[in-house]
Amino acid sequence: QVQLVESGGGLVQPGGSLRLSCAASGNFFSIGVMRWYRQAPGKQRELVAGISSGGSTNYVDSVKGRFTISRDNAKNTVYLQMNSLKPDDTAVYYCNVGVTLTGGYQLTYWGQGTQVTVSS
Asked: In this structure, what DSSP letter does residue 92 have?
């Protein structure tokens, strides 16, 4: 079906930057909405950013002005550029991608998650 491979997480100091990527591969016809979620210890998973197939974006208020979501349709990849990172950004980040399979079914798939830690 579809596999999502995430990369780019790591440990950074407050004020630093990271760029996450999520690449889709497998047997599908097209990709629709691509999103990034995160889950911090003791908190429920929240939607961080999303981007439509046409390039429209939305962000949770806490990351506006600091994070940028983008996509490269030729590479079937979504990115999350994270600047001015804060300790509260520490979480496991997951990509979520809506796809249309070759048979016409529409489904969503999750990446494996990548750890982002912001600490001195």
From this structure: E
Nearest to 2 by CA among 25, 33, 32, 34: 25
Closest CA to 104 of 24, 50, 27: 27
| Residue whose structure tokens are 């790591």 | 10
- What is the C-alpha radius of gyration for the chain, rounded to an integer number of angstroms? 14
76 Cβ contact partners less than 8 Å away, ≥ 6 residues apart = 23, 24, 25, 31
CA-CA distance, 99 to 90, in Å (whole number)?
Answer: 28
Half-sphere exposure of 32 (CA within 13 A, CB side): 11
pLDDT for 27-67, tens place per residue?
Answer: 999 999 999 999 999 999 999 999 999 999 999 999 999 99
Strand pairing partners for 3? 25
- Report how far residue 24's alpha carbon sits from residue 82's, in angstroms, rounded to the nearest whole number: 21
Three-state secondary-structure class, residue 116: strand
For the chain, what is the mean pLDDT? Answer: 97
